[in-house]
Amino acid sequence: MTDLGQLFEDLVRVETRLYNAVDARLQAADSVSLPQYELMQIISGRTTCRVNDIAHEVNITVGAASKAVDRLVAAGWCRRRNNPADGRSSLLSLTSAGSRICAKATPTFEAALSEWIDGVVPQRSLDQLGRTLRNLRLRLEADDAGGFRV
Q: Rounded to an integer, what distance in angstroms lies between the CA atom of residue 36 and that of residue 65?
C-alpha cells in the first residue's frame, strides 16, 4: 500500500527542486525567470488573454497575476490594451521582444526538462505519470480544491 503522505512529500519536493533547477538554467542562459517564461507561454498560447485567465491557469490571485504582468510590461515583453468587450479588463499580448525572448528560452527550457526527466524516468513510466498527474490536476481543478477565488 502506498503511503500517501510520503507520496505527497516526494511530489512536492520533486516539483520544487525541478522548478528551481529549470529556473536557474533559464536565468543563466536567457536572462528570463521560469515564472516570466511561463506567463509569456500562457499569453502567447491564447487568442485573447486577460490577467484573470493567467490567475485561473496558474491558480494565483488576480492581484499576483497583475503584478507579474506589470513586471513583463516593464521589461518590454508584454503590452496591455483595452478590452473592447469588458472595460474592467485589458487584453495582453507579447511584444516582439517578448516573443523573441520566449522563443530563445524554449530550447533551454526543453533541454533542462530533458536532462532532469528523460534520462531518469523510462518513457513508459513517464507516459503513465503524465496521465496520472493530468487526471489528478483535472479532478482538483473541477473541484476547485485549494483554489483562490478570483
A: 11
